[in-house]
Amino acid sequence: MKEKRKRKKERDGSGAAAARFTARWNDSTWDRIAPAVYLLFTLILFGAFLFSDKMLFGTDTLPMGYAARKVFTDLARQIGGLPLWNPYLMGGIPMVDGLMGGDMFYPTTILQFLMPVHRAIGVKLVVHVFLAGWFFYLFARERKIGRPAALVGGAGYMFAPYLVSLIYAGHDGKLFVASLTPFGFLALERLLRRARFADMLLFGAAVGLMILTAHLQLAFFACGAFGFRFFWRMIGDWRAGRRERIARTAALFVVAALLGAAIGAVQTYPAYRYTSAFSPRAGGVTYEFATSWSIHWEEAVSLLVPHFGGYLDGYWGKNPFKLNCESPGFLVMLLAFAGLFRIRRDRNLLFWYLLLLVTLIYGLGAETPFFRIIYHLVPKFFRAPSTILFLFSFGAAVIAARVLDAWLRGEDRRRILAGVATGGGILLLLLLFQSAGEPFFRGWGALFHKNMPAERVAAAMRNAPTAQLQILLLLVATALFAGVVEFGRRSRWPVEAAALLLAALVFLVSGETDRDFVKTVPLEDFVREDATIRTMREDPGIFRALSNIQGLHGNLFGVFGVEAARGFFDNRIRWYDEFSDPRNLNSGNVLALLNIKYLLSAPGLRHPDFVERASEGGRVLYENREVFPRAFLVEGHEVMRDPSGMIGRIRGENFDPRRIVLLEEDPGFPSFDGGDAAGILPVRWSEYGPNRLRIGVNARRPSILFLSNAWLPYWHALVDGEEAPLLRADYAFQAVPVPSGEHEVLLYYRSGPFVAARAVTLLAVALLVLGAAAVVVADRRRRSTDVP
């Protein structure tokens, strides 16, 4: 009878005899091999970039990421310190307060000063892909997942299409947070298990690093997941009767969270204050804006089969376009699906499945009614609910590693195989449905799109053969993956061989999608100095340029040291953005006040104020002969308490901005409107930097010094060393009242929120370093006393 039960256990895969793999490596060997394997895979995927002088292509990298970081790096070198203001875009934008400089305080930013910026951006991305895998491996080991399964899980997470595809979109901040997520969970799990001071410091550092990536939305999501995990574990400890440790653990968790928030204060508090008051997002965003860039039901299926909903040129979903893929990788999803068949045997999976459910519902945005509730709970600056799916990828990888660990050990083998087989069956159903062609997609559109446009149906039809081919390849991958485990188990393979084969298979299957998002290109193909750029660079004056050339955003002008009147950035200053709206640029007064001296356009411009100065490659540079200087004196002013009518007044035919400045406040002296009013009076520049401006003036009578820079209350003025008001003029710009005679006017940028947050961050970092040093000293003392 006992022999019969033993044979039954072997058939079920529930007995110890079912685990037939043999082990050759010890733990330390595994821990050395894992990062080496990840490094090898990373070199294979990114070799074309790493062994070249080119850059990794990203649609947002060129006009935003590269331009902003190049400007930040150049300005930092120029002044030998931290530039607080970027003058090269849209009248000026705060570097720190507006998050214009990106990950300025994140450790890998140092690479921008050690190599060309376009190379540094790519190297940072590649390093974080590697770190994602290594951190996941360490986290999996902390969760007592066997090293072979941890190795495969790390490969699955680091090469998840969600993670790698962020490179093509140019969303480096998102990739940084996603890569740090397993590190954060690793530190949290250690804190929850041991409740030690050192673990508190590690978790606080992880939270602080996430915030310093400058992608505050994803850092917020990650911290929410950490909080969810903390409460889950505390409830579990309470029910298990382990109540004596709860108070200590909770206290350390709170201290770690406060430490992390303090480390990241320099990145969060100034941005919060600025965004809530001065950017276009001030006052929050609408429900429609908050739900933009969700995933939809076709993209939900793409979590399993990446090509189902398509991406790049094959996309047919509801979003305007698709530059990334949210899938955690097919084999990870397959194992996560198989885990449902053994969830009753492994209750530790429940948390991770709940994480998958919550993030999927959030990522679907307005596709479900739940987002109406969510909209009132999360900060009103957020959009793109799909960004939360990095947590879906992480949770799926954790489940996959845990399920694979059980499979390799021979536990619940039949259940796992049933799940894998069911996943294969779902693939076959998708293949069958897609083979139906147009009727299937019209039915899909009727069910999920209400009224799916004919062009989207046609796009889905064009994408269908690619999706069908991928499904066939995934069926083969399913058979190979199961075959390696099962054949290796029966043939008594070394578990090391099976793990390496499975990791390679995961890499290859995800890599089939990843390679679509890894493009190495020469920087010169997108950023090059031609005759038009050269003409502007050689102009010694202070001016702005405007581009009407598609693909040449104003953001890129800053790369060449040329200031742009327009560009693209979410956190621009609201009133300058409204004043420089393209609908206002047909007004000569608006163009003149914006200090637009040059217009880059296609040939054929006919305007009496513009003359051609240079041309090359279909681009023509026109000079505006009626442009105003960046700064000048005006003797007349008019007070308009309600600024909403200023733009209309300026656009009017009877308004002369050379003689009258519109102010919201009384400057303290009467306007001079006499017949001998001089109009624009010149000034002398003696300093022009990102943080300070110094101007000499000689006023015949009390006048207004007008500066065509975006007004922000963080700018301050001194006249001959004495504090002077800095007024908002002509709706969007700066003005300083000056008395008659010769004077020196100094304008300097000082943000109160930044000064306060910087002090908090420096104090927190100092406490972290001192705490870490104390831990090291205490550990050495303990070891010395343990030695007999």
Task: Explain this structure.
With 788 residues, this protein is α+β, with helices and mostly antiparallel strands. The longest helix is centred in the middle third of the chain and has 37 residues, at 454-490. The radius of gyration is 30 Å and the shape is globular. The chain starts with a helix and ends with a helix.
What are the key terms here?
single chain; 788 residues; alpha+beta; 5-stranded mixed beta sheet; 26 helices; 20 strands; globular
Quickly count the helices. 26
Determine the fraction of residues in helical runs and give it as a percent range: 40-55%
How much is the average pLDDT? 92
Let me know the largest β-sheet: 5 strands, mixed
Which strands sit side by side, in order, in the main sheet? 6-5-7-9-8
Uncertain spans: 10-17
> Count of DSSP E strands?
20
Give the CA-based shape: globular
Estimated share of beta-strand residues: 5-15%
- Rg value: 30 Å
Structural class: alpha+beta
Cα-to-Cα separation, first versus last residue: 54 Å
